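Lay summary. Proteins are chains of building blocks that fold into shapes, and those shapes determine what they do. In this project we predict the shape from the chain. Here is one chain we studied, written as its sequence of building blocks.
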Amino acid sequence: MRYLPVFVVCFLASLLGPLCGIGGGVIIKPIVDAMGVMGVSAVSFLSSVSVLVMSLSTLAQNTFTRSSSVDSRGLLPIAISSAVGGVAGKALFNMLADLFPDADLVGAVQAAIIIVLSALVLTYTLNKRRLGSLKLSGSAPQTVIGFLAGACWSFLGIGGGPFNLAILVFFFAMESKVAAQASLFIIAFSQTASLVYTLASGSVPVFDPLVLAGMCVMAIAGSVVGRRISRRVDGSTVDRLYVLALGLIIVLSAYNFVRFALL
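And here is the predicted shape, written in a compact code that computers can read:
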């Protein structure tokens, strides 16, 4: 029963995947960390697995019902390069973590960067009609942007979900609902690469298998419910939900910054 709040958080965060392309890990991790029911490394791992399960579940449902708006072949360059960048970013983080063993300092820096990025993305989202988009094309810009984004998100430990939507809208002029589906496609690649890297490096933390099973069930349930809601809303509603999610991320990151830097 003490893990019931964890399962509730996982379900609610997983709703955001089908709705606005956010993996939910950036919300699950800080909240569960604050609960103090398991170690930080276990939370990170279980959160990543939950995000992977949610993204795969949503993509499978879209494929089965033939309701996917994603050009899978066209997105492969950014998805693969994001996965490669994610592994590079994780390796860089591990290297810097060894050089700077103060985990609180690293956590404070990560939280500060997330706050700045979230504020920038929030500003763009609220003004995107006036600011417009670049509408880049071709595999070269996709590869470069995917690698840099994947490395950055992995280094920050957030999986990229909160910012993939804005990147796809700004750089490739995607409509919000299409970008949300494309974001999950990219997240599935990056989270799979991250899981393989974790398994191959032997850095899987100790955790209760029942908690993993419960979080995976909640991730699937969240993807099913979120997808049903998504079919009933338009692009403007997706944008509003995205803005609310960014606001929540800023609040959670500010709390983490204070906790790591000052407490």
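What the prediction tells us: The CA atoms of residues 17 and 23 lie 5 Å apart.
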